[in-house]
Design a protein that fits this description.
Blueprint (H helix, E strand, L loop, with lengths): L3 H14 L3 E2 L1 E3 L6 H7 L3 E8 L2 E6 L4 E5 L5 E6 L1 H6 L7 E2 L24 E4 L3 E6 L3 E5 L1 H9 L7 H10 L8 H17 L5 H4 L11 H10 L13 H21 L40 E5 L2 E5 L19
Antiparallel strand pairs: 1-3, 2-8, 3-4, 4-5, 5-10, 6-7, 6-9, 8-9, 11-12
Helix pairs in contact: 1-9, 5-6, 6-9, 8-9
The protein binds a DNA duplex through α8.
Length: 326
DNA sequence: TCTGTATGTCAAA
DNA sequence: TTGACCTACAGAC
């Protein structure tokens, strides 16, 4: 179950292994068959992500839009050329988890589809299988724009652009400028609503790519109560929050997993991930790494919200009533 | 073999 | 606010 970092990795992987190649697109399961025909045989021009969505442009000016939802995942395989092209470490799977490619063996083309393969993309050198997406469809550019416009600023905008520039593609944007613009938009979105910040971070129209883990962890790291109305965040807190999210999500793109703890707080036995990766996510009842208070869990709007009631105490209410006035 | 759970989102009530 | 949906896997029987 991917948050934005997985989709940006996926976009990189697609750009690495398929961009500039003619691809055969099919739907072994059948549910994507009609759309697959519209792009099959075309060249995949480029791939990019915004928030939790992946877009691929094809040479006939049609676009593939994919949202992995809760369960979606890609499997990859291919020959040496294909694996060597990957800049993210030749994963077999991107989605909820990634598995290193098996070392040797001659590439004999894609395997018989196993299970419910919604979409299969095959190039000369390799293949990708998609299972369980909540969205997989072919769109015209105008429809792509509608989808993009629904999404708030993406804390990974800069990372994606930086990557593309490193490949020498002529994307015009300056990554730092994209992130600065994203920050201004985020701050503006916060100031426009009294909705608790914990809910705002899950609203893809206000900030895109953040999911349940990054929500919980970023609020903890910034010591912000999830219940605090968004428009009551100080300018300083909003700034800190945005740039912290940028930081931990860029780390996620680099590492392929979410690790939000600072070195000095990794105090549990066991491996860094997952045992020492989080401050609050799935740590309900356990002691806060910093203050020892039991981590709290509550279901809010159908999602599990984790936080430390001590480290993330809401700010002291200003004294109310006429007597307290200026 | 069965059940519960998961990093998500939408539509219906 | 609830249920539906898409799929795979861990853990309980």
């Amino acid at each position: 179950m991917p948050e934005g970092h997985s989709l940006h990795r996926l976009a990189r992987q697609f750009d690495d292994v398929f961009a500039g190649q003619a691809v055969q697109v099919s739907s072994p399961q059948g549910r994507f068959a009609a759309d697959a025909e519209r792009i099959s045989g075309q060249q995949l021009e480029r791939a990019w992500a915004k928030g939790k969505q992946l877009f691929c442009q094809f040479s006939n000016d049609l676009y593939l839009r994919i949202h992995l939802g809760l369960y979606g995942a890609f499997d990859f395989g291919g020959d040496e050329f294909f694996r060597g092209a990957s800049s993210i470490g030749a994963p077999r799977r991107i989605g909820e988890r990634e598995v290193a490619a098996e070392a040797n063996g001659e590439y004999l083309g894609p395997p018989e589809p196993v299970g419910q393969v919604r979409a299969r993309i095959v190039s000369e050198h390799g293949w990708a299988d998609l299972r369980g997406p909540s969205a997989c469809e072919v769109l015209e550019w105008e429809q792509v724009q509608v989808q993009l416009d629904k999404l708030g600023p993406d804390p990974l905008a800069g990372a994606a652009i930086r990557f593309n520039q490193s490949k020498g593609r002529d994307l015009d944007a300056d990554p730092q400028a994209a992130l600065e613009a994203g920050y201004r938009q985020f701050r503006h979105n916060l100031s426009a609503t009294r909705t608790p910040i914990g809910l705002v971070l899950m609203n893809q129209a206000l900030i895109s790519g953040v999911g349940n883990i990054y929500r919980a962890e970023s609020l903890y790291r910034c010591r912000i109560s999830p219940q605090l109305p968004a428009n009551e965040l100080s300018a300083r807190a909003a700034k800190k929050l945005w740039w912290d999210i940028v930081q931990i999500m860029q780390d996620g793109v680099r590492d392929g997993k979410i690790i939000t703890t600072w070195q000095e707080d990794r105090n549990e036995p066991g491996p860094l991930w997952p045992d020492n990766a989080y401050y609050v996510y799935q740590r309900q009842g356990q002691a806060c790494r910093r203050c020892g208070t039991a981590i709290r869990l509550e279901e809010v709007a159908g999602r599990k919200l984790y936080w430390c009631t001590r480290c993330q105490r809401p700010p002291r209410k200003r004294p109310a009533g006429p007597a307290s006035g200026r």
